[in-house]
Every structure is written in structure tokens, then in C-alpha cells.
């Protein structure tokens, strides 16, 4: 069972909403190479609010993701795309249901 997760809320700058959506959609290919990332979701709540949620079996998977290509690209583009700095939260997974 997954025990570790990340939740990152993103607020797009006015006029950059579709750029954030494209960035997140394109980030999937980078995440696919991460063996320690068990589940990864990029979601949109409304016009300007997005989030990333991902889950890991162990702390080393979460740490690798935090030090990986998606995080580096996000931080490199944050000033151009985001209205506020992303808040990275590290919750504990209490229960899950994943494909076998």
C-alpha cells in the first residue's frame, strides 16, 4: 500500500491558465519514467486553480520525485506561470485503491 504522498496546489497567473494546463499535461511523460511514483494526477479545479497529487510506497520514491524533472521544471517556470509560489504538502496516505 502507498503510504506517502504529495499535494501541490497551483494558482495560474491571469492569462497563463492554458499554459499551466499544457505544462501539467506534458509533465506526464516525465513522471512515466519515475519508477517510485505509484500514482500521479494533475487536476484542474476551476479556471485558475490546478493541483498535482501523487503517491509513493516509500519516502525514497517521494524524495526522488521532489528532486526529479517535473519539480525542477515547475520551479524553473513558476515565476512566469504562477500567481503565487506552489505550496508543497506531504500528507500520509491512510488508505488507497489502486489497479492490481
UniProtKB/TrEMBL annotation:
The lineage of its organism: Bacteria, Pseudomonadati, Pseudomonadota, Alphaproteobacteria, Hyphomicrobiales. SUPFAM superfamilies: Dimeric alpha+beta barrel. This is Quinol monooxygenase YgiN. It comes from Bradyrhizobium erythrophlei. Keywords: Monooxygenase, Oxidoreductase. InterPro entries: Dimeric_a/b-barrel. One of its GO terms (molecular function) is monooxygenase activity.
Amino acid at each position: 500500500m502507498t503510504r506517502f504522498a504529495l499535494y501541490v496546489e497551483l494558482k495560474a497567473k491571469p492569462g497563463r491558465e492554458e499554459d499551466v494546463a499544457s505544462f501539467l499535461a506534458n509533465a506526464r511523460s516525465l513522471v512515466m519514467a519515475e519508477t517510485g511514483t505509484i500514482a500521479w494526477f494533475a487536476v484542474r479545479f476551476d479556471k485558475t486553480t490546478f493541483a498535482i497529487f501523487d503517491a509513493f510506497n516509500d519516502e525514497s520514491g517521494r524524495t526522488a520525485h521532489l528532486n526529479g524533472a517535473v519539480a525542477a521544471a515547475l520551479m524553473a517556470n513558476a515565476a512566469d506561470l504562477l500567481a503565487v509560489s506552489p505550496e508543497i504538502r506531504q500528507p500520509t496516505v491512510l488508505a488507497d485503491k489502486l489497479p492490481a
